[in-house]
Every structure is written in structure tokens, then in C-alpha cells.
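Support request, please re-run this one:
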Amino acid sequence: MALDYDIKQDLRFIQGKDEGKVEGIVEGKIEGKIEGIRRALKKGKISFVDLAEIFAVSIEFIEKVKKDMGLL
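Re-run finished. Output below.
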């Protein structure tokens, strides 16, 4: 007798799927911020303090993005 079990109805499967969605959303938002920061840094007309305020990140985060771009 075969066991017929719909994994998509399993509580742990649903929890894992929901957690993955949240992680994806967070990662997407961070990537969006990084891209915006990169564009602003290429223009070179805005301070780190202003960028940190606009994108709601730390100045250290801005510095890391700039360093990763090879501009520091």
C-alpha cells in the first residue's frame, strides 16, 4: 500500500516556503539599495551622509559599496 502525502500541505513546508519568500524580498530590497547607491556614487555629487540618510543605511555600508566598486 503506497502512502499518498501532499507535501505542499505540510506545515514545515509552508513555513519554509514563507521564510524563503521573506528572505527573497529582503535580499531584493538590499540589492535595489546597492544599485541606487552605486549610481549616486558614480555621479559623485552627493555626500556619504546624504546617501546613508536617503537609503536608510549606515555610512559604513556606503563605504563598503564604494570599496566594492573599486573607488576607495
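Helices lie at 11-43, 48-55, 59-68. The chain has a mean pLDDT of 90.
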